[in-house]
Write a structure and sequence with these properties.
Helix content is 49%, strand content 16%. It has a domain of 179 residues: 2-enoyl-CoA Hydratase, Chain A, domain 1 (Alpha-Beta Complex). It starts with a strand and ends in a 10-residue tail after the last helix. By secondary structure, it is an alpha/beta fold. Helix 1 runs parallel beside helix 3, helix 3 packs parallel to helix 4 and helix 5 packs across helix 6. Strand 2, helix 1 and strand 3 form a beta-alpha-beta unit. Bound molecules: octanoyl-coenzyme A. Octanoyl-coenzyme A binds next to helix 2, helix 3 and strand 6.
Length: 257
């Protein structure tokens, strides 16, 4: 198991733990994440969820590139669409979900954090969508949610250049709600926000989440497009070049083929 659940009072803490790969998401971890959120959904004893990564260095450093490098275009489209369903369930969860972003939140990790209702970053957090470094595009909703959070122009800039932003920059951009000096402080702040919300009417909180999300339904087409284009890139030489360069710790030489 790489996804751990701890329940204290009304708050459930979910920790993704695969430190040797900076908590990168493989399909097994994705499934565990799906299962744990499902198990909490109808649990009335839980009124808030805190999601974080194990350790200090990384929230989640993306999808598992080693696993990605083995996928066919069809498998990649299916995995992307599966991620969309799971992240959609987090975004539309019945209780508040806060990501404590401790270190790297890259690619699928940034996309996971963006699917949460609130993001609290530690001072060492780094956010980014570096998929173009691999000859890819984001495939877990990043093309849609980054633009929603920071605006289209900044989303183009960050995703085109694969530039990482610091915690303070993420806060300025509206990507992080707060920045805390340490992970403990971030957890404390997240817990206090979740405790405040847990004192409100649970049905009102559930409807509030639905209502705020309702304004963002129009881009369903965007997610379908993202999954389709993400999969198409798996048939390119650039994708093979980008992923094998990462695995071999080399610089990719893209040819546009
Ligand atoms: N996948 C697999 N392994 C990873 C990943 C990853 N995303 N990130 C880090 N690791 C591994 C490294 O390979 C390394 O393993 P090893 O010790 O066996 O060589 C270990 O974690 C530690 O990493 P580094 O030595 O690289 O640590 P550094 O501190 O030097 O660098 C970085 C940290 C900058 C975070 C660097 O590891 C990095 O650039 N990682 C990749 C980040 C990235 O590109 N993320 C995006 C991935 S693509 C993606 O997320 C697509 C999402 C959509 C998927 C849709 C469904 C298919």
């Amino acid at each position: 198991m790489n996804v751990h659940l701890l329940v204290e009072g009304y708050i459930a803490t979910i920790t993704i733990s695969k430190p040797e790969a900076l908590n990168a998401l493989n399909s097994e971890i994705l499934k565990e994440l799906e299962d744990v959120f499902k198990s909490l959904r109808e649990n009335n004893a839980i009124r808030g969820v805190l999601l974080t990564g194990d350790g200090e260095k990384s929230f989640v450093a993306g999808a598992d590139i080693k696993e990605l490098s083995t996928l066919t275009p069809e498998e990649a489209t299916v995995l992307s669409a599966k991620g969309h369903r799971i992240f959609h369930a987090i975004e539309h969860f019945t209780k508040p979900v806060i990501a404590v972003v401790n270190g790297f939140a890259l690619g699928g990790g940034c996309e996971l954090a963006m699917a949460c209702h609130i993001r609290i970053a530690t001072a060492n957090a780094k956010f980014g969508l570096p998929e173009v470094n691999l000859g890819l595009i984001p495939g877990y909703g990043g093309t849609q949610r980054l633009a929603q959070l920071v605006g289209r122009a900044k989303a183009f800039e960050l995703a085109m250049t694969a530039q990482m932003v610091t915690a303070n920059e993420a806060k300025e951009l509206g990507l992080a709600n707060h920045v805390c000096e340490s992970k403990d402080a971030a957890i404390e702040l997240a817990t206090s926000l979740l405790n405040k919300a847990s004192e409100k009417g649970p049905l009102a909180i559930e409807k509030l989440i639905q209502a705020i999300n309702a304004g963002y339904h129009s881009e369903k087409y965007g997610y379908e497009t993202e999954a389709k284009l993400f999969g198409e890139l798996f048939a390119t030489e650039d994708f093979k070049e980008g992923t094998s360069a990462f695995i071999n710790k080399a610089k990719p030489n893209f040819k546009g083929k």
